[in-house]
Write a structure and sequence with these properties.
Blueprint (H helix, E strand, L loop, with lengths): L4 H16 L6 E5 L7 H6 L3 E6 L2 H14 L5 E5 L5 H4 L5 E7 L8 H10 L1 E12 L1 H10 L3 H9 L18 H10 L2 E9 L8 H4 L4 H12 L10 E8 L2
């Protein structure tokens, strides 16, 4: 797995789950995990991963990736969505539940978060990764589209006007934390992903080495206000039972 702040937090969760299970494989539920961007690396790290996604094409890609990585036996692919999650995942059955790139598109954020929390085992965690409203504002302004930036800033859901915006909503850090608490989750952290790597052109960063940038990203991920302009916001929460 990569070395950014999000991956490091998840690696720690996997290690803790393995310890709780006396060395048995941690159980990961990846909701909306589609093509396996997160599932395949986690299976490669020794986790048993169940992926629930409504897209058969994405699940087919997941199965090909899993086979290529030699971890097909550790991944179960199921077609469905958060509204029917109870039919695919037993309550309290997962040590780590992922909702990455999910809340921007679901019809009901509150119901989805409650479903993720219900699927989480005692001691386990829910990991949520979402698009950041303020990153979209900044990106539009820097691209010379101040009107678009103003629309995203003012819109209650953080959207651009018109049908071209396929994202139903964007979040800021405070809103994300509040939504998780309302769904019965205590919030361990809110951090950023992609503060500089998604903002600065790759040509500018070439020649400076990968590790200095990675170290800067990890530091910025947890440092407001830099965290608050990251492309994505990551939150980790635990069910309160």
């Amino acid at each position: 797995m990569r070395s950014d702040a999000v991956h490091r937090v998840l690696e720690e969760e996997i290690a803790e789950a393995r310890a709780r299970r006396d060395g048995r494989p941690p159980r990961v539920l990846d909701v909306g995990g589609g093509s396996g961007v997160w599932a395949v690396p986690m299976a490669s790290a020794g986790c048993e991963v169940t992926v629930v996604d409504p897209s058969p094409n994405a699940l087919a890609t997941l199965q090909r990736r899993a086979a290529d990585a030699g971890v097909a036996q550790l991944i179960t692919a199921l077609q469905g969505d958060t509204e029917a999650l109870h039919a695919f995942a037993p309550p309290g059955g997962a040590d780590l539940v992922l909702g990455h790139g999910l809340l921007e598109y679901v019809d009901d954020v509150a119901t989805s978060l409650v479903s993720l929390a219900a699927a989480t085992a005692d001691g386990g965690a829910v990991s949520v990764l979402v698009s950041n409203r303020y990153a979209a504002v900044l990106a539009s302004a820097l691209a010379g589209r101040p009107a678009d930036a103003l629309r995203v800033l003012r819109d209650p859901a953080g959207r651009y006007d018109g049908a071209g915006d396929t994202v139903l909503r964007r979040f800021d850090g405070a809103e994300l934390a509040d939504r998780m608490r309302e769904a019965g989750l205590s919030v361990d952290l809110v951090q950023g992903q992609g503060v500089f790597t998604d903002l600065v052109p790759g040509s500018v960063l070439e020649g400076h080495g990968a590790e200095p940038l990675a170290e800067l990203e990890r530091a910025a991920a947890v440092t407001p206000p830099l965290r608050d302009i990251a492309s994505r916001l990551h939150a980790l929460g635990r069910p309160v039972r």
